[in-house]
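Can't attach files on this board, so I'm pasting raw text. These are the components:
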Amino acid sequence: GQNIDQPTEMTATEGAIVQINCTYQTSGFNGLFWYQQHAGEAPTFLSYNVLDGLEEKGRFSSFLSRSKGYSYLLLKELQMKDSASYLCARMDSNYQLIWGAGTKLIIKP
Amino acid sequence: EPEVTQTPSHQVTQMGQEVILRCVPISNHLYFYWYRQILGQKVEFLVSFYNNEISEKSEIFDDQFSVERPDGSNFTLKIRSTKLEDSAMYFCASSEPSGGAGELFFGEGSRLTVL
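---
Top answer:
Structure tokens for the assembled complex are below.
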């Protein structure tokens, strides 16, 4: 199927590091996206990986392993404003984005 | 910074009524999309549009739905006869001429409530 699996909810402490994992179907793969979505708002783009390896962008990094159908989003130096849902999305060969259900990240002081 | 704009931000309608949601994509973008998100659920793909025609559509996008680009700037989603289960946030998105393999820029969304 087109399942994208990511944890439903995670909790972390302000200032800490958290890793959100995502696994996906590997056939017809055309890139892996991470989006952030605050409640009631539109998703906002965080990262796009199409080759294996780690992409770093400030406090956020995203990793991809195409052979394993696996990605993670790493958030460092967590801030309260990072409390949001983090959506993993796979782009298929038709350039459709197939979305995961999202991981709700709760940051505690 | 260019952005995707959507109107209305919130629409309340009676079941069976027609609804048109409007979007103005970023001006040099050529790929346009509609997604929806039912409250508390994941974002779902509805339709993609390129070169004045639908390029892909999902199972959700049945005969009740249609899209149109009536002029050079607007991209509309029409729901012909709304059902209760159409209540959701509808997001328009666009992407650059290089194709869908890149960042999708989302509008703020239009919240549709069907009573």
